[in-house]
Amino acid sequence: MQNIFIDESCHLEHDNIPIMCIGYIKVPQNQYTQLKERFEALKLEYRTPMELKWNKFSNSRLPFYKALVNYFFNNPLEFRCILVKYKDRLNHDDFNSGSHDNFYYKLIYFLLKTNPSDEEYRVYLDIKDTRGKEKLNKIHDVFTRYYQGESPFKHLQHIRSHDNVFIQLADFFIGAITYKTRMKSNPELNHAGRLEFIEYLEEASGFSLDEGTVPWETKFNIFDHQPKKSE
């Protein structure tokens, strides 16, 4: 059994941000407690009791952030995300039945379906709005149809990010990826501490955060999705 903790960034359709990203941290169920305790121990060691969030980045906590990168790469955790560039090119009328929500469900589908079907998974998503139950039911229906009633995704649940450190870690990695990607179109994104962290994460992963990784990468995987330009 694997636990999958999903977070997303810039997911709203009309937020004037040209990219979006959705991703997860995957945690083996049989090591969940130990891995959570190690994470909490780092928070105590670096005197960082509050929730980890990219939009609350603090230069004074840079050593803690780097320690979390080391923690991730030295433990049996996996990260995977879909980075959507040029969000304004999305053609919902032709490809998503006119609905941004349908595109969201497709992203969840493509994000998760690469996981081997011979394992079972519990999937936890960060609560974003009041339509959580509706979205969970839709995602469940999609996988039930795809796996003909034998979906390996046995449990879907919304939880709040402040209650789970692995959703927080997903948020932080996704935040770094979207920040690096947005830098090309927004030169004002030059926060020295954030740039130092991004460089550290890129060095540890071996990949540029604003580009896709090789498809078979399992530890730190970025799928770079670029909608086609309209004719």
Describe the SSE topology.
Layout: E1 2-9, E2 20-28, H1 32-45, H2 62-73, E3 78-84, H3 92-95, H4 100-112, E4 121-126, H5 132-146, E5 153-159, H6 165-182, H7 192-205, E6 220-225
Parallel strand pairs: 1-4, 3-6, 4-5
Antiparallel strand pairs: 1-2, 2-3
Helix pairs in contact: 1-2, 2-7, 6-7
3D structure, described in words:
The structure is a single chain. Strands 5-4-1-2-3-6 form a six-stranded mixed sheet. α2 runs parallel beside α7. The N and C termini lie far apart (45 Å). It is 39% helix and 19% strand. It has seven helices and six strands. With 231 residues, the chain is an alpha/beta fold.
Looking across the biggest beta sheet, what order are the strands in?
A: 5-4-1-2-3-6
Q: Compute the CA-based radius of gyration.
A: 17 Å
Helix and strand pattern: EEHHEHHEHEHHE
Uncertain spans, ≥5 residues at pLDDT below 50? 91-98
Q: What is the percentage of strand-forming residues? A: 15-25%
Helix content class: 25-40%
Helix run count: 7
Task: Work out the number of β strands.
Answer: 6
In round numbers, the mean pLDDT is 86
| Spatial separation of the terminal alpha carbons | 45 Å
The main pleated sheet reads as:
6 strands, mixed
Shape: globular
Find the structural class using helix and strand composition: alpha/beta
